[in-house]
Amino acid sequence: MTGDTRIPFTGSIHGGLQEGKIISISGRILPGIDRFHVNLQCGSRTNADIALQINPRYDSHPGYVVTNTFQNGKWGSEERKSNSPFPAGSTFSLSITATQQSFQLTVNGSHFMEYRHRIPFHQVDTISVVGKVEISNITFQNPMPAFSAQPVFAAQPVFAPQKSMISGGLKPGRTITIQGTVHPQATRSDPNTNEAKL
């Protein structure tokens, strides 16, 4: 999602939340703000469980950030971080990464905090933003798929040069392993042509 977004905003997290998924939010905090929040929710209904609320507040100087969970109609115990990285009137970039144990929060490219799960993260499917902020971009980055190291082809020992098609093509995360034995009379090997010179 790009372009200025009306606040309050509520939208689906495409593909749901899974380990390694990154949610990135960028925007601008308006002057005169008292607080805003970003929620990762289990559904969009009123009183939905909130796995993570990130709540920068500006009722003291410097500002601070409160994180919490809303479950079964009740708020849990607050976690507070002083020296908020969200000054009023500034732009910001917030990234939330779901890991097995926690949410990892990065603000403006620097690690900010870790928030341990109180609700299983795979139940989260909605994001909402409320407060005096302008949101320019919300993106979802899925984790890179894990490719197992499988042989592209199996062949009897051959002398270089040897050429073969890469089944399925080359993809991010795919590994090509070349195994062989250098001919005892070889003086050098050319990695570009995979040819041993005799």
UniProtKB/TrEMBL annotation:
GO terms for molecular function: carbohydrate binding. Residues 176-198 have a biased composition (Polar residues). Residues 170-198 are annotated as: Disordered. Residues 9-141 form the Galectin domain. It holds the Pfam family Gal-bind_lectin. It comes from the Eukaryota. Gene3D superfamilies: 2.60.120.200. The keyword Repeat applies. Coiled coil: none annotated. The keyword Repeat applies. Keywords: Lectin, Repeat. PANTHER family: 32 KDA BETA-GALACTOSIDE-BINDING LECTIN LEC-3, GALECTIN. This is Galectin.
